Amino acid sequence: MPATEATYRFIEHEDPRFTERVRAAAQEAHNEAEFRAAVAHYIDEVAGRLDVGLLVRREYTLATGRADAVYNRLIIEYEPPGSLRPNLGHGHTRHAVQQVKDYITGVARREKHDRDRLLGVVFDGYYYIFVRYHEGHFIVEPPLEVNAASSERFLRALFALSSGRALIPENLVEDFGSQNIYSQRVTRALYNALEGHTDDLTARLFEQWRLFFGEVAGYEAAGGKIRAEKELHKFIRGMGLRPETVDPPRFFFAIHTYFSFLVKNIARLVLEAHAGGRLGTTPLTTAANLEGEALRQELMRLESGGI
Question: What average pLDDT does the chain have?
Fold first, then answer.
């Protein structure tokens, strides 16, 4: 298993515990220093269990101020527990965000980084606020309540930015290819979700796709041969399904749907970047932390072509 995959598996199981400990620290700490020390200790524990060495500079003095903690390309600005608000216009919250913007600029200058490759997080134990710089603009995301989803994102960013993750084909295959646990789960979920759809819009879309796919790929003519291919059986098993019970067209449709979804979101990221915050939609990084009905509505907006 690739090292990053092992890290993601671990974080997925770790984030609820990390969340509980962070919340407890926020409630028990008498000031920012106590809270900062507690969270730093938790981060060190997680890194130790992962056997990952984190490059950290604490109370890092810059021309633009003194950053609380800099983990390679992740800058953390701790705030007194309970001092942040969900409203970015709130005075103290706005000031904290400005500080992390200044630190991003300061670290970029001192360490010869592009500001675009740095991420800042304002953190008080109750909210995370992610701040980044892209193509001439600072992008400040709405505050996220500290929960398992937001903590998972924080930990993933922490370990990804501590080592650096280049946008090269090998990394994209590792992060989104068939060997990735999340790719496997999504494909299985899509495949199983088609069960029982026989006379509705989903069924009609699948049938239309099946006809087009059969014509383009020549599947109908070679269907029997494809079903017997050992490589296909191995691939299906790798996705956590049973080859002897899988319907290949339905399986290919699930994979096609997954990669179609990825392409749409890559396009969305490009639009967000070029719009410089003027797109008028929920940032993708914020949408990734939505759950339930809010997530369903966001996905409907994406699929409708509104963006």
Answer: 83
Residue 85 DSSP label: -
Read off the tokens for 242: 């049973």
Q: How many angstroms separate the Cα of 69 from the Cα of each of 56, 103, 114?
A: 7, 10, 19
> Would you give the distance in Å from CA 240 to the centre of its chain?
23
List, for residues 220-270, the tens digit of each pLDDT value.
545 556 667 788 888 888 888 888 888 888 898 999 999 888 888 878 877
Rounded CA separation 238/240 (Å): 5
CA dihedral defined by 302, 304, 305, 307, rounded to 10 degrees?
Answer: -50
Residue 172 in contact with residue 164, Cβ under 8 Å? no
How many whole angstroms separate alpha carbon 255 and alpha carbon 176? 11
CA 76 from centre of chain: 18
Residues whose CB falls within 8 Å of the CB of residue 280, separated by 6 or more in sequence, listed in order: none
Q: Which tens digits make up the pLDDT trace of 20-32?
A: 999 999 999 999 9
| E strands present in 184-223 | none
Tokens of 63: 């021309």
DSSP assignment letter at 143:
P
Buried/exposed 18-37: b ≥16 CB within 10 Å, e otherwise: bbebbbebbeebeebeebbe
Of the candidates 135, 156, 94, 103, which has an alpha carbon nearest to the alpha carbon of residue 277?
135
Q: Which DSSP string do the residues of 122-135 spell out, in sequence order?
A: EE-SSEEEEEEEET
N-to-C CA span, the chain: 36
